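Researcher: Quick one. two chains, 591 residues in total.
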Amino acid sequence: MPNLVTLVLQITVIIAASRMVAALFQRMHQPKVIGEMFAGIMLGPSLLGWLAPHLSSALFPPSSLGNLNALSQIGVVIYMFLVGLALNPAELREHGHAAVLTSHVSIVAPFVLGSALAMFLYPRLSDDSVSFLGFALFMGAAMSITAFPVLARILTDRDMLGTSLGTLAIACAAIDDVTGWCILAYIVAAVRAHQHTSVPLWATLTGLVGFFLIMLYVVRPLLRRFQRIYKREHFLSENMIALMVVVVLASSVTTEHLGLHLLFGSFLAGAIMPKDRKFIRYIQNKFESVTVVLLLPLFFAFTGLRTSIRLIQGAQMWLFCVMIIIVAITGKLGGSMIAARAAGRPWRESAGLGVLMNTRGLMELVILNIGLDIGIISPTLFSMMVLMALVTTFMTAPLLEWICPMRLLHPAGIAPDPGKITDEPD
Amino acid sequence: MRANKLALTYVLLVGVPVLALFGILRAGRLLTAPVSMGGIWDLDANFNALGSAPCVSLLNGIDQPFFTISQSGTSLLFAFDDPGRTTVAGAILGATVSMGMGSSGFPAIAEGNCRDTHAVYLQGQVSKQDDQRILTGVLGIHGCARCVPIPFRAVRQPPQAGGDR
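Model:
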C-alpha cells in the first residue's frame, strides 16, 4: 500500500511539474513537449537530486521506480502506436524524388558522421562489453532520428502543414522514422543476440518475417473491418476499441519475445492501420488524451531520473558533449539542407527543412532509453545524448522563425526571396 | 535529363557516404575499449584484520558485502551501500583498477593521527573469463602509516539489462 501512495504522489508531482514547465515554454513560443522534457530532467538528479537530495530520495526512492517505469513504458507503447498511426504512405508518394533524396540523405549524413564520431568516442566512453559495430550503428541511428510528432506539432502551431515545406518535411520525417526504426530493430536484435540473453539473430529475423506477414495479411483485414464499421456507424463500440488495444499490446509483446523491443510492435500495429483520415482522427482521439496528459510525462520524468548532468564532469567530458551536439546538427540540419537544395528547392526552404528535420525530441529519448536498457551506451553518454536531444529540439522553433518568418509564409509555399512568394523550385 | 541529374546526386549524396560508412565500420573493428567493469560486485575482504588501527572508521563505510561500479570508458564511479551512499571516483587503465587515488570524494574523519586529507584508496587488477570479472587488490588509507592495506577479492555478479553498467 505505501508503494501505491508513493506512486500516486509521484504521478501528482510529475504531472503538476510538467504542466507548469510546459506552460512556461509555450510562453517562449516553444512546443509544450520541450517543456515536459525539461520538467523530467528537473525532477531527476540533475536538479532536484542536487538541490534537495533528501526530498528527491523521499519522493523517488529507488525501490519505487519499477512501478513508474512500467507505467511510463505503457505510455510509450501506446504513443508509438499513435506515431505509426499518423504515418501515411500516400503523403510520401506525393513528393516523389525530392522526398526520397532528401530523406535518405537526412538519414545517411548524420548516420555516417555519428559512426565516425563513434570511432573517437568508443575507446573513451564505451567498454568491451559492447562491440564497435553495435556502438557505431547505435550512434548513427541516434543521430539520424527525427521527432515526427514534434515536427508535426511545430508545423501545426505555425500553420505550415499545408505549405510545400510542411508537407515535404512531414514526408521526409515519415520516411526517416520508418528507416530509423528498421535500422534500430536490426541493432537491438544484433546486440541482444550478442549478449546471449535473448533469441539468436536468425530466429529473430525469421520470426519477424512471419510476424510481419501475419500483421499484414491477418490483422490488417480485421482492422479494415473496423474502418468499414466506423464509416457506417460513425463510432466504434468499446469492445472494438478494447480489441484494438489487445492487438497493440499483443504485437508489442510478440516483438519483445522475438528479441526486439516492445515499441517496434506497437509502431507496426499503428503503421498497418487503414489510413482513412476521419477514422485515424477518431482512433487518435480515443487514445491521445490519457497517453499525452498522463503517461508521457511519466516517461519524461523516468528519463530525467536516469539523466545526471553531473556525470558529465571535467572539460574533456563537456568537450565530448559539445562534439556530439555539433555532429548531430551538422549531419541532420546540414545534410537535409544540402539534399533539398540539390533536389531543386530554394535555399530558404532547404534551410527550413534542415531545421525541421533536426528536431529530435521525444523519439530521441525513446531510442536513448532503449540504448541504455540494452547496455549499449553508458549513463554518462546517455546524459550527453539527452542534452543533445534537448538542444536540437529547443533550437527548432526560434531558428525556423528566423529562416522562415511567419510573414513570408503562404499556403502555396515559402518565398525564396523576401516579398516574392512562390512554390516553384528555382 | 533531370532524372539523370537526380540519380547522380543520389549516388553522390547517398551512395558515397554509405561506402564511407562501411569503411568506418571496418576500420573501427581494430579499436579496443576498456575492460567492462560496470555492475554489482560481491566484496570479500577481512576488515577485522585492521583491528583498532587509526582511521579504521574511514573503511567502515565500505565494510559492505557488495558495491556497484558505473562505467563510462576509463572513468569508474564506485558506489557503496553504506548509510551515506558514498561514491568514489576511479579509473581503469588496461587491467589496473584504481579508486580514490588523489580523490577527495570520500568523507575524511578526524581520528587519532588521521588528517582531513586522508582517504580510502583501492588498487587492483581485473581478470576476465567470458562475462565474469574478478578484481583482486588492496584497500587502504592514504597517509596512515599504521593502517596496513587489506587484501580483497571482488567478483562481479552476472550482468543484467537495465543500464547499470
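Chain B touches chain A through 36 residues (CB under 8 Å).
Researcher: Thanks, that's what I needed.
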